[in-house]
Design goal:
The complex is a heterotrimer. Chain A is mostly helical. Chain A has helices at 5-34, 42-79, 89-93, 99-123, 132-158, 189-213, 216-246, 265-286, 298-327. In chain A, 70% of the residues lie in helices and 0% in strands. Chain A is flat and about 65 Å long. Chain B contains 13 helices and 10 strands. Chain B is elongated, with a radius of gyration of 31 Å. By secondary structure, chain B is of the alpha+beta class. The longest helix of chain C is centred in the C-terminal third of the chain and has 16 residues, at 175-190. Chain C is globular, with a radius of gyration of 18 Å. Classes of the chains: A mainly alpha, B alpha+beta, C alpha/beta. At the A-C interface, α2 of A face β1 and α2 of C.
């Protein structure tokens, strides 16, 4: 285990998030068992008051997850000097088998929390709170994921051993240790470029379509489009956007672009991409609820707005990426 | 969207007014909060600056230093040793270095004596670090005598004083001519302290080191990257220990924040009741309280961080210098290079704002869910 | 305007000190009229007022506002309805100390997100209407009892509600100020607002302004006229 502040902070964040959800879970069970919107009993009034606590809590956990994901990457990058062969965050995350899964789960938790907040938003616009049981069942179902996140992070950090000089020898750590892959294998630039712009354009079009139509078909399409654009976006960043930023034909790292050395350009890419994906996927995921009578008005309006936000986000993302490519001195494609 | 912004503006307005109406309570919270940020930020800024300083210093050192070991102890490099290395591919320059420690009983401190290769110093002259300049009152042109380990007294003229640039390392340095060095320490002719090797390609360093070990089994190569790594983890570890010690303070702060948020005064409870009765929704009250927390957090963070900045970079971290700096008696009074680091700010945020928010969440919710009809029932 | 159907309201439900403040109320509040609820303390008139004003939900029974059943609505929506439809004048005035008169008046409009300038103009007009224009920037704790009540009335009117709810409005006022209040009430009623108030002050209950009087005792209606 490497004992340092950012690691303690990350474990603190994961542990506290889990603890807060665990403490809240008995109340979630109560909501599921005793919810009766038609009743004016004091128990029902109490349960309704509890829903405010949960939405505040999940909003907070969602914020913490996104910040923790950032801190996680930051920290991995800073730790890379401690491991022989690790040039940046990728290398540090590869030190043991838990690094990348921990990061992926962190990102997944962010998207899940965002989705929950979207469902919560739609639900609390309907006068009879039709999704309340589903919401709290989801919340309880998510607890093991939060526990898994804490476990993965613990395993990752506990498994870290810095390659450090001891008093007896100036040992050479890499002598027979397998070298850490510091680069991510990536696609050829040309197909990646086509896929990147194709998927982003499709996601923008589908988002715009749903924004106008607001029906089921366009809603599901916008959700799938967002998912595809997210994958294509990440692949594109790996395959060529990062190369243009680094102006180096072999540096594929998706994390170094977040560093001050590259003027934090990565944030301009990732913020719109993640926001748009969260919005777009939520739009798709909310569509099945449009059938409920009390949500028949609320859901189409809300998913339409989400799809609009997603479309704008992807437009921004594509624009930012294009500007970065445009300004780069690197020539990948003739 | 526009109404949303208007609404948030209203809420912030109300929050500001309500904060200023309860100055005493909020100043107390702000003070404790700011103090916590100050202590944590001081630790973080200080260790970070030390780390950066060490990196800056090491940047100028050779990629590989080769030492000779006898019975596991560091020994002198005998004559002919350097030649034995021969030509290793990738090594640009290899040269023997001469340096050693000298204990000055007058100020009870260790100096590092060194015969530099890249600097021409006349016989009988020395160049001293800024710490000596201060502790012994030296200036260029002054004379100073050192009693060598063999008991003789050697007198030198100070030719120059090193600049303050990276004082952490150069503070206790005494540079002299090679002949003077050998005479002072009775260093045998042809022997060296260690060997410095310059390697241009960073990817070659490891191979070079392996070849050296093969050619000279009694040698120990020390790689700059490994020293850097070691420093980084030592500084991180120290910072971590400090934070672990401060965990109790963070916990206490969390409890304090909880108490403050839970112990609403009767006046505040009445206000929230009124707001609920005249048409504010629970969510509105939570948002108002959220703005309140955000404003206090930002202010405390700003105040604490700026104070820590002044403490570390202008007052030389006077409060915990002894805990965090090295072991040398001659504390260099160096100016750390100011530096802000994203990771550090993010970490600080997790240690302060996060516990604060977690602690006040439930009390805020309790207050916000006051029944709107309470004002009519009292 | 508002119809109540067999409303019952319990406190401390399921505990040993359970107690029913209202036990079966059927009542209809007519539009654009002044209705007074009267009865001894503990008769349930304030509880009834909180249910009429959407401040609380009945434990049992139905509440209809303009034909729409609102008895099962969660607090979030009740609050929205309350903000748009009701204005409240409380017995203790319940102004927020430390804020000026005009700041107090615009408070109920904050959640609507209307621009500040629009709100201040409206509040200035309201305060001028009750001869408080010159005191608008004064902190409310510096105002006299009568002035405080007039600020409270302006606050109740800022969202332009159709219905005004007043709880014991004259309890803290002397005869002269009570009569002034009745004059304002008359003006508001003439302007077409529906008003519901509780009072055991004969000055109010027997005045010409009040159209209907509902008497309560032990959580039941004993008399309507």
């Amino acid at each position: 285990m490497i004992f340092q502040p950012a690691i303690i902070a990350l474990l603190l964040a994961a542990g506290l998030s889990l603890a807060m959800l665990l403490i809240a879970s008995p109340f979630a069970v109560q909501v599921i068992r005793h919810w009766d919107i038609a009743s004016g009993s004091e128990r029902q009034l109490k349960l309704e008051r509890l829903t405010y606590l949960f939405s505040t809590l999940v909003a907070f956990v969602c914020l913490v997850q996104i910040l923790a994901a950032l801190l996680f990457v930051f920290n991995a990058d800073k730790m890379s000097v401690m491991f022989v062969g690790a040039m940046c965050a990728v290398g540090a995350l590869n030190v043991n088998a838990f690094g990348f899964p921990a990061l992926y789960l962190q990102l997944a938790l962010f998207f899940l929390a965002a989705l929950w907040l979207a469902i919560n938003h739609a639900d609390s616009r309907a006068r009879d709170y039709p999704l309340v049981r589903l919401k709290y069942a989801l919340l309880i179902a998510a607890i093991p994921l939060f526990a898994a996140s804490l476990w993965l992070q613990l395993s990752y950090f506990l498994g870290l051993k810095a390659d450090v000089i001891t008093s007896c020898c100036g040992s050479l750590f890499s002598a027979d240790a397998p070298t850490l892959a510091s680069e991510v294998s990536a696609l050829e630039p040309k197909p990646a470029l086509l896929g990147f712009y194709g998927a982003t354009a499709a996601a923008i079009a589908l988002g715009g379509w749903h924004w106008r139509r607001r029906d089921n078909l366009s809603g599901y399409a916008a959700g799938l489009g967002a998912l595809a654009a997210f994958l294509a976006g990440i692949a594109g960043i790996l395959a060529f956007v990062s190369l243009y930023i680094y102006e180096h034909p072999n540096h594929h790292c998706p994390f170094c672009i977040l560093k001050p050395d590259y003027d934090y350009q990565g944030y301009w890419l990732y913020l719109p991409l993640f926001a748009a994906t969260a919005a777009g996927m939520s739009a798709g995921a909310l569509r099945p609820f449009a059938r409920r009578p009390s949500l028949a008005q609320v859901v189409p309006e809300f998913t339409g707005r989400l799809a609009g936000v997603a479309a704008i986000g992807y437009v921004l993302f594509a624009l930012v990426a294009s500007v970065m490519i445009w300004q780069s001195n690197l020539i990948l494609l003739e | 969207m526009k109404t949303w912004i208007e609404k948030q503006k209203h809420l912030i307005d109300f929050t500001l007014a309500s904060l200023s109406r309860r100055k005493g309570k909020n100043l107390g919270l702000l003070f404790i909060y700011g103090l916590l940020v100050f202590v944590l930020a001081s630790v973080a800024l200080y260790t970070h600056a030390l780390r950066a300083e060490a990196q800056k210093v090491l940047a100028g050192t050779p990629e590989i230093v080769l030492q000779r070991l006898v019975a596991g102890r560091h020994d002198l490099i005998p004559p002919g040793y350097i030649e034995k290395i021969g030509r290793v591919r990738g090594v640009q320059k290899q040269e023997g270095r001469l340096w050693g420690y000298y204990y000055d009983s007058v100020v009870k401190a260790n100096y590092t004596f060194m015969a530099p290769r890249d600097m021409q110093i006349e016989r009988g002259e020395i160049v001293v670090g800024p710490a000596l300049e201060r502790s012994r009152g030296l200036a260029a042109g002054n004379g100073i005598s050192f009693r060598s380990y063999s008991g003789e007294l050697h007198t030198f003229i100070v030719g120059d004083v090193l600049p303050q640039g990276s004082e952490l390392v150069s503070a206790d340095l005494v540079l002299m001519n090679e002949a003077d060095f050998r005479a002072f320490f009775r260093y045998p002719e042809g022997h060296y302290t260690d060997i410095a090797l310059a390697v241009a390609n960073p990817q070659e360093i490891r191979n070079v080191a392996l070849k050296l070990m093969a050619a000279l089994p009694d040698s120990r190569p020390i790689l700059r990257d490994e020293v850097l790594r070691t420093y980084a983890s030592i500084f991180d570890w120290r910072e971590g220990i400090m934070l672990a010690l401060l965990a109790a303070a963070i916990l206490a702060f969390g409890i304090f924040a909880w108490e403050k948020a839970a112990g609403l005064s009767a006046e505040e409870k009445r206000e929230i009741g009124i707001l609920k009765a005249i048409g504010w929704e629970t969510g509105d009250v939570i948002k108002m309280k959220f703005w309140e927390g955000l404003l206090i957090s930002l202010l405390a963070f700003l105040l604490g961080y700026v104070a820590a900045w002044l403490h570390v970079f202008h007052a030389n971290a006077a409060l915990f210098e002894p805990v965090l700096k090295g072991w040398a008696v001659l504390y260099p009074s160096f100016r750390l290079t100011p530096h802000i680091d994203g990771l550090q700010v993010a970490t600080l945020f997790f240690f302060t704002v996060f516990p604060y928010t977690a602690a006040v969440l439930v009390p805020i919710w309790r207050a916000a869910t006051t029944d709107p009809d309470t004002v009519m029932r009292s | 305007m508002i119809e109540l159907n067999s409303i019952r309201k319990a406190f401390n439900q399921g505990r040993h000190n359970e107690y029913w403040a209202l036990s079966g109320i059927d009542l209809s509040i007519p539009e654009k009229r002044v209705t007074a609820l009267k009865g001894p303390s503990g008769s349930g008139k304030t509880t009834l007022l909180t249910i009429l004003g959407c401040l609380a939900r009945p434990t049992e029974g139905r509440v209809r506002l303009k034909g729409e059943d609102i008895s099962g609505l969660p607090e979030r929506f009740l609050t929205e309805i309350r903000r748009q439809t009701f204005g409240f004048i409380f017995q203790q005035f319940n102004l927020i100390r430390g804020l000026s008169a005009i700041e107090n008046v615009i408070l109920p409009a904050f959640p609507t997100g209307r621009p500040r300038r629009e709100l201040r103009e409206k509040a200035e007009a309201l305060l001028a209407d009750v001869d408080l224009g010159h005191r608008r920037e004064a902190k409310v704790e510096w105002l006299s009892g009568g002035e405080q009540q007039r600020v409270a009335i302006c606050r109740a009117l800022i969202n332009d509600p159709e219905l005004l709810i007043a709880d014991e409005p004259t309890a803290n006022l002397d005869t002269k100020l009570s009569q002034e209040f009745l004059a304002i009430l008359e003006k508001l009623a003439a302007a077409g607002r529906t008003i519901v108030l509780t009072s055991h002050d004969p000055l109010v209950v027997e005045s010409d302004v009040v159209d209907f009087v509902v008497s309560l005792r032990d959580g039941r209606i004993v008399d309507e006229k």
